[in-house]
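User: My collaborator sent over this chain with a note saying "see what the structure looks like." That's all I know about it. Can you take a look?
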Amino acid sequence: MINQYGRIAVDSATELEELRAVGFNSEDFETLLRRALTNYKTYEAQNDWLREHVATDEQNIFLFLETKQPLTQAVFYCIAAQLLGFTEALAGNGYNGVATFRQLGLPIATVNNLRHAWYELLNSHTNNGLLFIDELASQGYFESNNHRLLFNGKSLPTYNTNDLIRESVWVETSVDTDNDGRFDLVQVDIIRPNTNEKLPVLFTASPYYQGLNEKENDAKVHDVNVPLTRKDTHQSALSNLNQMEETVAKPLARQINGYAEEASVIFTQEAGKPVDLNQYFLSRGYAVVYAAGIGTRHSDGMQDTGSPEQVESMKNVVEWLAGNRVAFTDRTSNIAIVANWSNHNIAMTGRSYLGTLATAVATTGVSGLKTVISEAAISNWYQYYRDNGLVVAPGGFPGEDMDVLAELVYSRIKDPADWLKTKKQWDDFQANTEKFTDRVNGNYDYYWDTRNYLNQVKNIKVDMIMVHGLNDWNVKPRQVYQLWSALRDLPNVKKIYLHQGQHIYINNNRSLDFSDQMNLWLTEKLLDKDVKANEILPTVTWQDNTTEDAWHVLDEWGASKKGKYYIGNNVLTTNQNSGELNFKDWLPENQFAYYCEHFDKWRDDTITGKLPTNQIFKSEIYTSERTVDGEILLNLRVKSSQNIGLISAMVVDYGNDTYLKETPTNQGVVIDRGVNFSPTDLMSFESEKSAYKMITIGHINLQNRTSPRQNDDLWPNQYVDLHFELQPTYYKMRPGHQLGLIIYATDFEMTIRGNQSIAYTIDLSKSSLDVPFTCKK
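Assistant: Without extra context I'll predict from the sequence alone. Here is the result:
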């Protein structure tokens, strides 16, 4: 199925005007068809194509046209399916074009109004993942005249990407993180079409952009094979929270020595890998801007992951793009330059760290920022490297932490003179970061509070696009769920896309028109055109976890009511149970060492019950479909044999079935983002057979059962009550499947791994699972 949500309905007069503008104004089908054969420059070459393709299952197109037979809907859509590249699907449907379009979910119109039918066809997706009009453009249909042309509310790729302007400037920030008495300068790289038009701006704040220190990063990774330790009972003082750090001394702004009309530094290639969505918009008349920020190559300052100062420096770049801050042509001359090519409307884009900083800048309420498109973004750094009083790693990265990530992106190391000058200061700065993050304690405190952007959500004034994978165990789903929930009562428009992938972009997915939707969205937000994007784009778009190429529109994410399962002897039941169950968090040394290196195998063996270090509970076999919508709450009465302890939990879908892979598959098709510009692979989620699928996960320190910032006392063999939420999801359970709960302690991928001989006992009479089910009616 091709799911197109970025289409708008226009009246017939607008259709005719737009068709005229793109050169498809004829009422003659053959004229329209030949004009669409962009790659065939002569009449004879076009005839060859017509002879190779069919009008019916008995006649090729050339003969159909030569004999001047009447155009029927059957013939139109048989030819249309071939124009869009769905020849294989057409053959599978016996060359029935109408049936093929229905199967693909593409629009069908009556051919009595040929212009309308052709307009709809131009707005249909091809087998190559582009709108037909965009695919024609990529084949050179339009002259790249560097002027904006809108079609169905979206910018067409009419800007010359072979003549892009690439230039660098240095924005003066309002922070001095290297304490040299002057505000830090940050390099800003600009890529823009060579046009006199004022351009909307896509800004990506990427600490990765100026290069990565992978060797230094690997050397900094913390050992996670350390024991869990007892914490002194205390609570972080409230007075230490929600405070901003005081500046020691007011740094000096630079004296402006003059103004330049043009940048004095140009480049031929971006320093880092460009964001594909940005590339898509470069050919459509948008400027693209990258900044790595303070503490990166060619910029001043210290790298401090997620800090208020890092956010402020990226906010300052937005201010310059909006005409409200100074930038210079280099780092020493103090010759200022303005963004006279900008229309002062800015969107921030990016995934992961990039999307995180976009979200963070939005919480500053900065003027000029009109929207954010954040994908797989962090909203609270505590929830990234900690969880409920535990040191917890993002999935796949055991031992990473704030200082490790900072080491990765402190790209000033790459310039020898700069590194020699800053090495001592950087090493001292990193030592402080390691002290502040406190990997022994794991509690929420002032350090983490200043890196929790949810505190400032009320300051977000812009409309927000959020994208997240429900199988992203790097930046886990709670990050976007808490942001979505915090935005719920604010007046700004917000849209969310929930896909079944891991930590990925989805703009090159075959089955969803995400790039088209963003094109429509930015027409309204950055070009100030009323194209009804707020109304057209769904509030919640969810990718079905049971069917390939299926996306659904939802009204909301997060069911308000939860049904209760009681935990029994290896079962989840609707009746309260009694008794005790035990497990021991210890493995023989050779087995422990193996799982430390192969935590994917550990997870599989845990889910399939091959280890003694957990307890598994399963529901009845479902006879009807039901959906888990939001956060599952685990209520557990448990005791530890020692005065320390942690609990981890997994919820699993058990059932022999096909499940979508968490990593999309390359379709062997390359999408052109302009005309011979920035090719990207077309991807699609495919299915595979399995006996189970992990749905969600959660962790807690037994000493933080009240709060992540409070250490409760814990005595050996003392029962305590835990109530903690697992990562949120939206997951469809199918008939014939069972919901499974696994309770264990050490998570070989995410928690520390002490391999301590700790025995845990679960009191079944006081343990339950609250599941936010919505059932199919």
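A starting point for your reply to your collaborator: Residues 241-247 have pLDDT under 50 and may be disordered.
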